[in-house]
Design goal:
seven-stranded antiparallel sheet; globular; about 10% helix; mainly beta; 12 strands; about 180 residues
Length: about 180
């Protein structure tokens, strides 16, 4: 990425670092323009639905990750407090806020094993691919698509894990957000 990003060790768990999933769009031409917000489903941890944080900051109401928990996205429940929103950014949908905190990069990889990441019965028109972490390039595309608006992509006082490896240390991964969208 041409923009600054910070990094943290892959085993690092902290209240200020969290999980913001991305989904590859299998048919991106069928969707609306970049920056469009779409309901992608309800997020589950260990088979239980997780409420969407309304104050998605380090000191807000983001739930803690339960080490070893299974993470999945299922069909959206009728209750809006459980409906996860994502933003179209190129060929991916990126959730509009961190859904879990106190989760390490290693935890995300363990929780997102291939057999666990297939979305279940989500919107047919959406047809998302597997749940994963966004790349820094995708995160930047998201920031551009929403003009870095914190009320839309909720980056303030919360870091989001990304896939990218620190060029100087393979045991560190990129985190984005906190005092700037980028």
């Amino acid at each position: 990425s041409a923009h600054y990003w910070s990094n943290n060790p892959v085993k690092f768990r902290h209240t200020g670092v969290g999980f913001r999933p991305a989904f590859e769009i299998l048919n991106p031409d069928s969707l609306t323009p970049d920056g469009t917000i779409i309901t992608v489903g309800t997020f589950y941890m260990n088979g239980q639905p997780v409420k969407v944080p309304q104050n998605p900051t380090r000191d807000g109401d983001i739930p803690d990750y339960i080490p070893g928990a299974k993470l999945e996205m299922r069909e959206a429940l009728d209750d809006p407090s459980y409906q996860v929103q994502a933003i179209k950014a190129g060929d991916v949908l990126i959730v509009d806020r961190v859904l879990l905190k106190n989760i390490s990069w290693n935890d995300t990889q363990d929780a997102l094993r291939p057999e666990q990441t297939e979305t279940q019965d989500t919107q047919k028109a959406l047809n998302p691919g597997k749940m994963r972490l966004p790349t820094c390039e995708e995160y930047d595309f998201l920031a551009t698509a929403v003009k870095e608006d914190n009320d839309t992509m909720h980056w303030s006082y919360m870091l989001s894990w990304c896939q990218d490896v620190d060029p100087g240390s393979t045991s560190h991964r990129a985190v984005r957000g906190w005092v700037s969208a980028r």
